[in-house]
Write a structure and sequence with these properties.
heterodimer; A: alpha/beta; Nucleotidyltransferase, domain 5; six-stranded mixed β-sheet; two-stranded parallel sheet; about 30% helix; about 25% strand; B: alpha/beta; two-stranded antiparallel sheet
């Protein structure tokens, strides 16, 4: 039975780990391509309303976001739980939208300005009053292309 | 003869790549932005006199949402689920009912003359309306128009609107326009 005798002596060669880095790099590139940088920290809770007929936003770099909702929990004792507007990283009032839009517009190139979109990300429990104020202010700044952000649901 | 250089140990490149991977996983988001796209009407000029809206009474349907998220379409209270069919009936006017919007023949480039409805949907809301109800109504309006566009392109091109090419989509958009006016804020609760 010499067939089985020399079993203990033989060593299993170590698997080569050289390709492991290639696999990880591939994963890395996948994530780098499919994701975008997180730009702002959310200070308001936004649970988007549901809709079925949503369209995808084409140019993410030409979009400015207006978040509307009640402040996150640890800020509620400071700001209350009334709906507030968040632009970039801080709470703002309706009047400050004008400066925000102007700043966003300046940051874009001349040719892209006409494609600027303002995405209104409002919580589903927000009252329309504040949203209407924002819309009126946007009309005043002639930022007319808007999008109501929503979650896509199956019908 | 040149001496053989020893091979560089590459086992740590995987660790470096993992580190980078973790960094990108932490700092980036993957969510796609979806939503209902709209164009707001430009602000009326202050010097300009408020012109009489020459829109015929029959060409306009007023959809009101009050602060309790109840819906009024035209003259009757209605549920959100019925809104789509009501809008479709309003925009198509299949029986040429004199109470429903008139149609006019316009020349569409690349298609020819076509009967286009003059109907306008006017959406009014209260300050107390919840955003969720508002979006639900907007969604129904868009759905009605999307279905009409699909039907129209099915009849004329035998394809769904989404499968048409760019030029034909423009034609369909002209044939079935999306006339939703988000009116100046009004207090709907007061009559």
């Amino acid at each position: 039975m010499s067939k089985f005798k020399n079993k203990g002596k033989r060593e299993v060669p170590q698997p080569s780990s050289g390709s492991l880095s290639d696999i990880v790099f591939m994963l890395l590139f996948f994530f780098m391509v499919t994701t975008t940088m997180r730009e702002t920290e959310n200070k308001v809770v936004v649970k988007l309303p549901e809709a079925t007929e949503v369209a995808k936003l084409e140019r993410k770099d030409l979009t400015s976001y207006i978040n509307i909702g009640s402040p996150v929990r640890h800020l509620q004792n400071q700001y209350g739980n009334d709906s507030r507007i968040q632009l970039n990283d801080s709470f703002k009032t309706v009047d400050e939208i004008r400066d925000f839009i102007a700043a966003e517009r300046d940051a874009m190139s001349e040719a892209d300005r006409q494609f600027m979109t303002v995405a209104i990300r409002a919580d589903e429990n927000t009252r329309m009053g504040i949203v209407t104020d924002v819309k009126q202010e946007l009309r005043r700044c002639s930022a007319l292309k808007i999008m109501y952000s929503a979650r896509k649901t199956a019908e | 003869m040149a001496r053989k250089t020893p091979e560089i140990n590459s086992s740590s490149t995987a660790d470096i790549a993992f580190l980078l991977l973790c960094y990108f996983l932490m700092t980036t988001t993957m969510n796609q932005d979806m939503g209902l796209q709209r164009r707001l009407p430009p602000m009326p000029d202050k010097n300009q006199k408020v012109e009489d809206q020459k829109v015929n009474r029959r060409n306009i349907i007023v959809v009101k949402i009050n602060s309790a998220d109840r819906l009024l379409a035209g003259t009757e209270p209605i549920h959100v689920s019925q809104l789509k069919d009501k809008i479709k009936e309003f925009l198509t006017n299949p029986a040429n009912n004199p109470d429903l919007p008139e149609k006019s023949e316009i020349e569409i480039e690349g298609y020819g003359p076509c009967m286009v409805s003059k109907g306008v949907i006017s959406l009014q809301n209260d300050r107390g309306t919840s955003y969720q109800a508002y979006i639900a109504v907007q969604n129904e309006l868009v759905k009605a128009i999307n279905e009409l566009r699909d039907e129209w392109s099915m009849v004329n091109y035998g394809k769904l609107y989404a499968n048409l090419d760019e030029d034909k989509q423009t034609i369909v958009r002209k044939a079935v326009p999306q006339n939703i006016s988000e009116a100046e804020p009004k207090d709907v609760s007061k009559k």
